[in-house]
Known about the structure:
Blueprint: E1 3-7, H1 15-29, E2 34-38, H2 47-54, E3 63-69, E4 76-79, E5 91-95, H3 102-112, E6 117-120, E7 128-136, E8 139-149, E9 159-164, E10 170-172, E11 180-182, E12 188-190, E13 199-200, H4 208-215, H5 218-229, H6 244-253, H7 264-278, H8 282-294, H9 299-305, H10 307-333, H11 337-346, H12 349-357
Amino acid sequence: KGIGYIQHSDFTEGSYEEMRTAIEKLRTQDTLRGLILDYRGNGGGILQEAVKIVSMFVPKGTEVVRTKGRVASQQKVFRTANDPILPDLPLAVLINGNSASAAEIVAGSLQDLDRAVLIGQKSFGKGLVQTTRPLGYNTLLKLTTAKYYIPSGRCIQAIDYSSRKQDGTVGKVADSLVREFTTRGGRKVYDGGGISPDIATEPQYISRFAVTLLAMGFIEDFVDEYMQEHHTDTIDNRTFSITDADYDAFVKFMEGKEVPYESETRRVLKVLKEAAENDLYSDLAQEITAIEGDLKDDTQTNLHTYRKEIAETINNDIVLRHSYQAGVIEHNLGDDTEVLRATEVLENPTEYQEITTMQTSEKK
């Protein structure tokens, strides 16, 4: 319905050209009314690619980021060099705790310029510039020489390496040192580590049991057999799901297989039981033992407890065999709460306008 979606995984050379090509493809498919840029899990990369990507959405000559260091050579300002191709298109940017460096520069600069609505969780907070120095014998020293500052003037660095504790550890910027800045339109934003989204959401987790099945290859082995039986099938990436009979077949497939999994509840009970015994609370230790006996976290029980997550993991593997990673992305969009929230905002001009002109960011 006119809302485009691009998942951007890194900032390698050519990222700008690839994204521009993707945008042009979206524009030929439909009238583009809004665009979602997904930077969740993007660990960054080449700074210049980030600046060029921002240039597609803001006026030529706009400052995107500057670096400040102790020597003059580290004082640099990076501005957009091209005219924008989408100067007014509503934008939503998705971020999470693994969005870092160049990804934070794109997201943070678009927020500082009141050019996009950010959705998700606070970003990683990697605002340091490293320069390599040759040491001889084919070795290099990576030396921190500057910090990144986005248009509002705030630095996105989270860990304060200048304040090392006596034990050698370092902590994040203290709350008392967090400073207030303003966006181009006057909204309040803060430094102190990472980029805070305009719309905060809770991260979605898959169960550890489903992850264990995937990591041990059980799901892949089952899908191998499934694909042999269904090799002539065609599927709709968006709606595909295995049947109840297919899942029952997976449960049967898992019979007799050892899964080295221990629930978090059982782990906590073990720690609590040990503490009770050390404190000589014998009655309490007996009660904990009774609870452990009632706890059902064996493989067959977990296959039913975590059926939804396991079935979806199987679905993703089957879609991957048919349509590769792009198919998996398409398959998951329909249940992605952050994508759905972004779509809502882009389809609601009033809410979009209120967020980008008046809403204040969270301080921490």
